[in-house]
Design brief:
With about 350 residues, this protein is of the alpha+beta class. About 45% of the residues lie in helices and about 15% in strands. The strands form 2 sheets. Strands 2-3-4-5-6-1-9-11-10 form a 9-stranded antiparallel β-sheet, covered by helices on one side.
């Protein structure tokens, strides 16, 4: 595969396989942070140190076939244009940190894009497995398989008392960060999220926006993940997160049922108003687009809209981001030009759904 394969489609192949509870849990992710023994960590490493890590990844793991994930392609950040890296960030295949700050970064990607191994981000190696729906256990299983596979060829920094050593103290121990991306529009509309968020934080979990730390929860999409890894086993971390997610699923379903029973006319008006604006608008800012796409997805899940695929939220949330808009245009666009192209792209996509 080439770079073009990874940046030409908004929907990663793994996203097309709808997983359990996919109407609320869009994706499950497990990330393992690892560093090489006797090698300065990326924050303190020289460019030569970082290039040596990339060379190891290229020699030991690139273009090697894994039983589950197939062939792994190595992409070096220095060989990519800024907007190409931005597209990979928008698809959650690399982090903004790897894209913008690393002097010698790279990523190993599987063909279906469910596996991404970032090289020289905050740590030497960050293994990330992404699956559709609520599949935390399966994500952990696959991440551990890749961890074992890599550890056969690389010596990871490990302390008998502290566990895996990482750049950030909050990752020391298992080095595990598990998260789910949830669509929770009914809890937001009924104003229950203001009460729920503090309770989640008290349980040692953190709630972020769609692109992780520092990002806004646009389109009623929330990323929920563990905060602490030291002193807990991988199974305990995943179980703690799973129990909270199950409760959130139940509360979101109850809130949706309540909206249908007590405010059906208002929710129908909201859903169809957003659907109409998306279908005919000629100018659409990103924030408005994400909110109205969230309304349409809610309408689909409630059975109010039956001629549009549920995947449209996943697809258009990525497709209408600045990087993708400019990638398709083949040029740098001003904010005004992006707003016009965003509106046009959404109109065309909805029209395709109607013509099916």
């Amino acid at each position: 595969m080439s770079l073009q394969n990874f940046i030409s489609e908004a929907i990663s192949p793994w996203m097309k396989n709808e997983g359990p509870d996919a109407d609320i849990v869009l994706s499950s992710r497990v990330r393992l942070a690892r560093n090489l023994n006797n090698t300065p960590f990326p924050l303190a490493a020289s460019k030569e140190n970082l290039e040596a890590v990339i060379k190891l990844a290229e020699e030991k793991f690139a273009n090697r076939t894994h039983r589950k994930f197939g062939n792994l392609e190595l992409l070096k950040m220095e060989d990519m244009k800024q907007n190409e890296k931005r597209v990979l960030v928008e698809k959650h295949l690399i982090s903004p940190n790897l894209s913008d700050e690393s002097k010698a970064g790279a990523a190993l990607l599987s063909e279906d894009e469910s596996l991404s191994i970032m090289i020289n981000e905050e740590d030497h190696i960050r293994i990330q497995v992404l699956l559709s729906g609520f599949q935390l256990d399966q994500s952990l299983k696959y991440a551990n398989e890749i961890d074992d596979w890599m550890e056969e060829k690389a010596d990871f920094a490990f302390d008998e008392k502290r566990g895996y050593l990482t750049s950030c103290p909050t990752n020391v121990g298992t080095g595990l960060r598990a998260s789910v991306m949830m669509h929770l529009p009914a809890l937001v509309i009924t104003r229950q999220m203001n009460r729920i968020l503090p309770a989640i934080n008290q349980l040692g979990l953190v709630v972020r926006g769609i692109y992780g730390e520092g990002s806004e929860a646009l389109g009623n999409l929330f990323q929920i993940s563990n905060q602490i890894t030291l002193g807990k086993s991988e199974d305990d971390i995943v179980e703690d997160l799973r129990s909270v997610v199950i409760q959130l699923i139940q509360q979101e379903r109850a809130a949706r049922e309540s909206l249908l029973q007590e405010s059906k006319l208002q929710i129908e008006d909201r859903v169809y108003r957003s659907y109409g604006i998306l279908s005919y608008s000629r100018n659409m800012e990103s924030k408005e687009a994400t909110q109205r796409l969230s309304d349409v997805r809610l309408g689909i899940d409630l059975g109010l809209i039956d001629n549009v695929s549920g995947n449209i939220l996943n697809e258009l949330m990525i497709l209408t981001q600045p990087g993708f808009l400019q990638q398709y245009a083949g040029e740098i666009l001003s904010p005004e030009q992006r707003d016009q192209r965003r509106a046009a792209l959404i109109r065309e996509r909805l029209k395709l759904e109607k013509d099916k």
